[in-house]
From TrEMBL:
It holds the Pfam family Exo_endo_phos. The lineage of its organism: Bacteria, Bacillati, Actinomycetota, Actinomycetes, Kitasatosporales. Residues 6-258 form the Endonuclease/exonuclease/phosphatase domain. NCBIfam families: exoDNase_III, xth. InterPro entries: AP_endonuc_1, Endo/exonu/phosph_ase_sf, Endo/exonuclease/phosphatase, ExoIII-like. It comes from Streptomyces lunalinharesii. This is Exodeoxyribonuclease III.
Amino acid sequence: MLTVTSVNVNGLRAAAKKGFVPWLAGTDADVLCLQEVRAETAQLPAEVREPAGWHVVHAPAAAKGRAGVSLYTRQEPERVQVGFGSAEFDDSGRYVEADLPGVTVASLYLPSGEVGTERQDEKERFMAEFLPYLVGLRERAAAAGREVLVCGDWNIAHQEADLKNWKANQKKSGFLPEERSWLSAVLDAEQGGYVDVVRALHPEGEGPYSWWSYRGRAFDNDAGWRIDYHVSTPGLAARAVKAYVERATSYDQRWSDHAPVTVAYGA
C-alpha cells in the first residue's frame, strides 16, 4: 500500500504554529506533497524542515515569501528534480518531483490567477508549458515501466460539481472555460493521458471540497472548491482504493485554508 497526502499549507511556518506538527506526527502517509510553503529552507523550524523519519526536499521560490513546494517521503528517493525545464518557472517554487520505486511523485502549485491581470497571463503561460511536460513525463515513465502521480493545488475547479457556487464563479479565475478546457486536456486519454483519481473514486455528488475561503462562513457552510488533485497515470489510478479529504472538525481546528487530500494506492 502506498498512501499519499497533498495539502496547500498556506505558509508552513504559520501552519506549524497552528497544528501541522502534531498532524504530521500522526499521519500514516508514505509521501506528503506540500504547496505554498512560503519560506526559505533555513527559515523553517527544525520539526518541519527535517522531521525524523522523513526524507525531505524543499523547493522555495526565488521571490521571497511566495509559493514554494516540498516533498516528504518515508523512503529515500532515487532521484529528485526541481522544476520542469522552464526558463520562466523553474525558480518559482511551483514544481518538484521525486522517483520512488515504480512511481514518480510530484508536488505542484499551479499559479492562481485574476482575470484581466498579469497574474492570469502568468497562469496561462504556465499551463501552456506544463501540459507538454506532463505528456513527456508520462511517455518516459511508460517506457521505463513506471507510473506518475502529480499532486497539488491545481487552482482550477474542473466541473460544476467541484465548487459549491459555480454559477457565480463562471467568469472568475479558477473556473474559467479555458482553464477547465485545459484541465480536460490533461485528463483526456488521447491528450494528457492522466486520471483525476479522487473523482474516479467519487464519481457522484458534489466535492469533496478541499479549499474554503477564510471569509464569511464558507467553511461552516461547506461552500468550498475542489482544486487540490491527485492526477495520475491510468495504471496507478486503477490501484487507488480509498480517497478522502481530511477536513478539520471545526473552523478553529484548521491550520490552513486547504485540507489534506489523501489517497491510498494498493500494490
